[in-house]
Amino acid sequence: MHLPLILLAAATPLLAEQPSLTIYNGGFATVRESVRLNLRAGINRISHTDITRHLEPDSVMLRDPSGSSALSILEQNYEGAPLTQERLLEQYEGKTLTFETPGNDKKEVKAKIIRAPYSLHSTAMRTYGSNYYATQMAQYQGGSQPIVELDGRIQFSLPGKPLFPPLDAAATLKPTLSWVIDAKDGGTVAAELAYVTGGLMWKADYNIAGPEKGDKVEIVGWVTMDNNCGKDFNLARINLMAGDVNKVVADGGFGVGGAMSRLSAAGPSGVTQKSFDEFHLYSLPRPVSLSDRETKQVEFLRASGVRAKAIYVYDGLYVDQNYASWGYENIRNSREYGTRSNPKVWVMREIRNDRANGLGVPLPKGRVRFYRDDGKHLEFVGENVIDHTPDGETLRIYTGNSFDLIGERRRTQFNTDSQRSADESFEINIRNKKKEAVDVRVVEHLYRAQNWVISQKSDAFEKKDSNTIEFRVPVAPGEEKVLTYSVHYTW
User: Fold this and answer.
1) Is residue 233 assigned to a domain?
2) What backbone phi and psi angles, to 5 degrees, belong to 323?
C-alpha cells in the first residue's frame, strides 16, 4: 500500500549511550538509556533492538528530557518473540516445505504444513496473568503436535529437519521496539528510553567474622546481582532499591530523597545510600558491566569493631502441630497443652545498628553468615536472614542451638474452674556445661487467657508483651539453675 506521507527511517539504528539501571529486590528493574533519534519532519518509523527479552511493553517511556522537541508517538509495536523454528513453521502453514530425513541415508522430501506446532506466548502470559496462562497451556497441550501431509497422507510429526528458504529482511532475530513518530521538526534528538523489565535481581549478603572469644566482629556486606534479562549492560550506572515495593501499584514518581551518605567511611566500596520515597536507594560508586547470564558481586559495606553480643534464649514450650490452630477457647481447659518440653537453648547475636556501634546505616534484607577464628582459620558457626533494618534498630539473629546448655521445662501443677479461671505452675531447669558463666533469657508464653497474674515466682521477670514474660537467669559453670513460677488466669 502506498503511504506518501510517511518518511521511512526504520533502517537507521539508534545510537545508545551509557545505560543506567535501578534493580529491585523483587526480581525486576528499571532500565534507562539515552538514544539518538535521527528524525525528519513528519512521520518517521524507528526501530530499536538493544532491549531486554523480558521488557514490559506498556511500561516504555520514550521522551526528550530537555523538552525542546515536540515528539508525538502515534504507534508503538513490540516484537518480543525472536525467530524460532516453531515460529517459522507457523509462517509456512498451508505451504509445502522441504525436509531432510533423519538417519544415515539422509534424503530430502517435500511435505505440506497443515498445522505448525503451537508455541507458548511467554510475554502475553506474563502480562495477562494466570488465567491467560491456563488458557495458553490448554491450547498448547491440545495442539502442540504438528500436522503435515506427506505423499497424500496425514501424520502428526515432522518428517525430518525443516529446510527453510533464506530469511527476508523483515525477520525479527532479537526483541524489537518500533515506533511511528510524528516530528514537528527534523534533526537529531537525544531522547531518553526507559522501561520496566523482568530478569534482573539483587540481594544482600553479610559475612561476620569474630575472634574465638569476645563480641567484637568485622562485618562485610556484599551485593549480588543476577542478569537473566537477555541483554548485556556495558559500564552501566547501577542503583539498587531496597524495600517492599508493590509492583502492581508502584507510584513511579521520583519522590524526595534525603542526603546521600557513605555506607562505610573506612571501606573501599564507596557505595552510597539515601532515603527515596518509602524505600532506600543504594548507588554503586562506579560504572559496572553486567552481561546476560552473569552473576556479579560488589562490596557495599565494611565495618570493624562492631559489637555482636552473644545471647542465649530458652523458649521451653514445645507446641505440637496438632495445636497450631487452637485459640484461647480451645486451650483454656486442655490439660495436655503446654506439657511438652523443648530442650534446646538458642544462640543468638544481638547487634545494635547505630554509629556508636560502628554501623548506623539502613541495612537491606539478606543472609547473614557468622564465622569464628579458631586461631588458625575461620570456621562457619551459623547463618540466618535479616529483614530491612533501619538505622537505630537492633538485630537479633538466631544462629543455632548451644551444645553445652540444656533446658528442661516441667509443669508441676494445673487446676481449673472451667467456667472462670485456671492455675498453672512450672519448674524450669537450666544446666550449664560450659567453662564460663552465661546469662540465659528464659521466655515463657502465657497462652490460656488474656487476663493473668503471676502469683508466685523464684526470680524477677520482665513483661515483654500481653502474653510473654522473660526471666534473666545467670548460670555459673557446671551449675544447674532451677526457677519456678505460678500463673493465675481468669476469663
Assistant:
1) no
2) -100, 5
Which residue in 163, 195, 169, 241 sits closest to 78, CA to CA?
A: 195
> What's the DSSP call for residue 434?
S
- CA pair distance 426, 483, nearest whole angstrom: 8
**Number of neighbouring beta carbons within 10 Å of residue 71:** 17
Residue 276 lies in a domain: no
Helix, strand, coil percent content, the chain, rounded in steps of 5: 10, 55, 40
Q: Which regions of 28-95 does DSSP assign to beta strands (E)?
A: 28-39, 42-48, 61-63, 71-79
Tell me, yes or no, whether 204 lies in a domain: no
**Is residue 193 located within the same domain as residue 328?**
no
β-pairing, 480-490 vs 451-457, is antiparallel
Q: By the 8 A CB rule, do 359 and 306 touch?
A: yes
Is 349 within the bounds of a domain? yes
Rounded Cα–Cα distance for residues 209 and 308 (Å): 10
Do residue 342 and residue 372 come from a single domain?
yes
**3-class state of residue 125 by DSSP:** helix
Amino acid at site 112:
K
* pTM beyond 0.70: no
Instruction: Answer yes or no: are the C-beta atoms of 413 and 423 closer than 8 Å.
Output: yes
Per residue in 141-189, pLDDT (tens digit) is 555 789 999 999 999 999 999 999 887 666 666 788 999 999 888 889 9
Is 59 in a helix, a strand, or coil? helix
Mean pLDDT for the stretch of residues 211-227: 93
Domain containing residue 56: 6-81+172-198
Other CB atoms within a 10 A radius of the CB of residue 440 amount to 24
Q: Are residues 396 and 315 in the same domain?
A: yes
**What does the block give as the cell for 330?**
480451645
Are residue 341 and residue 438 in the same domain, yes or no?
yes
